[in-house]
TrEMBL record:
Assigned keywords, A-Z: Coiled coil
Pfam families: DUF3656, Peptidase_U32
Entry annotated with the keyword Coiled coil: yes
Domain Peptidase U32 collagenase: 417-532
Family matches, as InterPro entries: Pept_U32_collagenase, Peptidase_U32, RNA/ubiquinone_mod_enzymes
The keyword Coiled coil belongs to this UniProt entry's keyword annotation: yes
Protein name listed in UniProt: U32 family peptidase
Any coiled-coil regions, as ranges: 467-494
Amino acid sequence: MSTNGVEIFTPGTSKSPAAPAHLAPVALADNKLELLAPAKNADYGIEAIRHGADAVYIGAPAFGARHTAGNSIADIARLCEFAHRYHAQVFVTVNTILFDSELEDARKLIWEVYEAGADAIIVQDLGLLELDLPPIALHASTQMDNRLPEKVSFLEHVGFSQVVLARELSLSQIRAVAAQTQTRLEFFIHGALCVAFSGQCYISEAYTDNRSANRGECSQQCRMPGNLKTRQGDTIATNEHMLSLKDNNQTENLEALIDAGIRSFKIEGRLKDLSYVKNVTAHYRQQLDAIMARRPEFESASHGRCSYSFVPDPDKSFNRGKTDYFVHDRKPEIADFRTPKYLGIEVGKVTKIAKDHIVVDSSTEFHNGDGLGFFARNFEKARLSDDKLTGFRINRAEGNVLYLKTIPQDLRVGVTLYRNHDQEFETLLAKESAERLVTVDFLLAETATGLSLTAADRHGHSVTVAAEFEKQLAKDLERNRDGLNKNLGKLGNTDFCLGDINLGDAAGVFAPASVINNLRRDAVEALTKARIEGYQRPTPWQRDDSVRYPQKSMTYLANVANQKAKDFFTRHGVVSIRDAYEVRPVKGDAPLMITKHCIRYSYNMCPKEVPGIKAEPLEMELGGKQFKLVFDCHKCEMLVVG
């Protein structure tokens, strides 16, 4: 199709039927809910699992969509070993598009990842499916632009057991996808939002020395400030972060997402710090646990219950404000045009400024070392920069009197302050802050020559150990029972917490404490071994090579960068395939970003909302570059053309 003279590739023509959010749950056989957390490295992944993740995703040594977040095979193996103790899983990202010269290295890498114990690889480039891969589960990256039911159904048929859906989908659109597939559906529930449909942005590649978002090197020009004008030159906005979205937060929508068919709940943040991973993972663990407590038809995808030394609060970790994006369809204020930085929580207004301190009207308890921020009143010096938000640290807090090393020059009485660093909270998170334990039940029984102890978790694993000794009848039955319970309950530094103890007729047998302690230790060791040996990695789904791809032709927006990918799509019915932008850049005007975010809507200029307004293109200057904004109102999308 063509809009205002610019050729636009249409990924698909079907439109998901509208459906109210209160419909009955989608009927899926899969009842396991998976909390999926980011792992910058193995240590971060281990902490994510301790804090409640059912699975973590981590970058491979190369070919990951976060270029600076690669990890060694040895570290991936170490993470897998820890995760599998709780039957949690490890997904490894190999999710960039690949050039022909990289395919063999990628194939070898995937074998190494498999041999390290990984449970799945997350991929974008379908050329990989033409290679000799190990029997490892495949997950379709959101970089594949997974919006339409036909696309997801196709991915299921060619072997993907899990598909990461586009962040822009509404509940009704998710339902439409779930109705046409049995693959597990994964959805981002927290963290940074890419303003473009994932895989559909080429601004970084085009304007920053070949730093391709599809190859893990996005320069994030969308977070820069810019100017907006009409085609006639009238100014609409100056020095605004027009493409910088707030951060995703689906806390209030988790149950609705479950009912729509989502089974994997993904937290963004492989470049975030450890306190973010701990805090946000713990928050969503508690939210999902509360839902499962009300709805026993669902269960956690891994084992163990978590306890914390802090109260999880995602507002206290890095975020740009929160939005639930398009889950309940389009709504205002999904972006904050003032700043792309972490603004923090509003804590009060300045009432007095002295030489070395300020006074704040606030009910907040401040701490030494807290970080505060405010918006400077004089924006002129901050023109076309990110300096509108100014920050400072508290040296010493005495109630609402805050002593500072230096008083910021632009600080004024009446200015609103935001706290973006809670020192006390961060201190808690810097320590050991969570414990994850699997419940174990004990059954003590009398044997002909002594006692046996059966240890069982609540996931089907059970072991029995025995001890021989000279039995005696207990003289004080109640005291003997208390002693047995006490010694069996000493689980110390193990992965287990005590459930039920059944002493049965063994309650009348006196056994030295050393015998019971040895029985307990042997049983716990045997159960740990049984649980590890009982863990099974997911297996690949069967492939149907006869299935047809939903389209007959592909433009550069399909991101086909190698011959193997062309072979794959040709085998599945595609007759015309254009090279990826990274291989053959488009000459002349072309969409360099396709996004659901609409600047016309944000500035109250939407033709569907304001009578008499036309969807004429707008001109945007961003980072010194000029772009044309073209509006496809039929699909409710915006194209950034350059």
